[in-house]
Q: What sequence folds into this?
């Protein structure tokens, strides 16, 4: 295929890429459709506050639903582990990580580094 050409959608004849009508068969050619994708901006502060209120809510707000649900399950089991004392360490760590992750993920979404 020569640069600046395309094939007719009806007869397959090679035509100029700017042609609106095929000179061979007379069929109007479809124009390419360009769509601009707009991503919703996330508020990092709100993501952090939601995650501080309950672990996983900030991740869900950021559109990472599976990650938020996993964080909730981990937090639940960590609370159960308080009965054997290890939860006294893991529970605050998971809570702090959830806040940190929600905030940074929202910033990275806004910067276009992550597509949700």
A:
């Amino acid at each position: 295929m020569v640069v600046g050409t395309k094939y007719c959608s009806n007869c397959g004849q090679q035509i100029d890429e700017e042609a609106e009508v095929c000179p061979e068969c007379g069929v109007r050619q479809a124009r390419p459709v360009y769509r601009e994708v707009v991503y919703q901006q996330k508020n990092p502060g709100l993501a952090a506050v939601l995650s501080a209120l309950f672990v996983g809510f900030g991740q869900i707000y950021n559109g990472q639903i599976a990650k938020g649900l996993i964080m909730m399950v981990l937090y639940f089991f960590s609370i159960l582990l308080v009965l054997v004392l290890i939860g006294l360490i893991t529970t605050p760590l998971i809570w702090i990580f959830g806040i940190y992750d929600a905030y940074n993920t929202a910033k990275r979404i806004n910067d276009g580094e992550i597509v949700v």
Q: What stands out?
A: Helices lie at 44-53, 57-61, 65-80, 87-110.
